[in-house]
Amino acid sequence: MYDIISKVSQQQLKAKSVSKHIGIGDEVLVKNYVAPNKSIWNAGKVVSNVGNVVYDVKTENGNIIRRHSNQIIQSRHSLPFSVSSDDEIVNSNIPLVKESDECTDNVSQNLPGSSSVASPLSTQPYNLRPRK
After folding, report:
1. Is 4's pLDDT higher than 60?
2. Residue 39 and residue 56: Cα distance in Å, rounded?
3. End-to-end alpha-carbon separation of the chain, Å?
């Protein structure tokens, strides 16, 4: 039993862990909750360290918000825009294109050597098993 405990503790000591070092004045991306199921990453600057893992961050619009370190990402570059959690760029000049049925139909028609084959539509009900 002692051998297992010593082996596990040695493995834990050897494991390389990456600690997150966030300092005052660092430019970061901070998670901003805009709706119950939606969040956006906003650029900001760390103003103060409240605890071991809690920081006050001043966002682009001047608001100071308090966030845990797991809701903060260090930024290597100065970002003039916000990035949402879906990797969608907000307030940017890059157009966002969402796939729709029209778009996929047009693409399949323009492919060389492709023939327009209609997909078979099922006229049978989903459950074909007879009732007991």
Report:
1. yes
2. 18
3. 58
For 77, residues 6+ apart whose C-beta sits below 8 A from its C-beta are 27
> pLDDT category, 82, cuts 50, 70, 90?
very low
Q: Mean pLDDT, to the nearest integer, of 93-110?
A: 46
- Quick one: three-class SS letters along the chain? CHHHHHHHHHHHHHCCCCCCCCCCCCEEEEEEEEECCEEEEEEEEEEEECCCCEEEEEECCCCEEEEEHHHEEECCCCCCCEEECCCCEECCCCCCCCCCHHHHHHHHHHCCCCCCCCCCCCCCCCCCCCCC
* Phi, psi angles (nearest 5°) of residue 8: -65, -45
pLDDT of 92 reads 42
CB 96 within 8 A of CB 89: yes
pLDDT of res. 15:
80
Complete domains list, the chain, with CATH: 21-83 (2.30.30.140)
Please name every residue paired with 67 in a beta bridge, in sequence order, or none if there are none.
Answer: 55
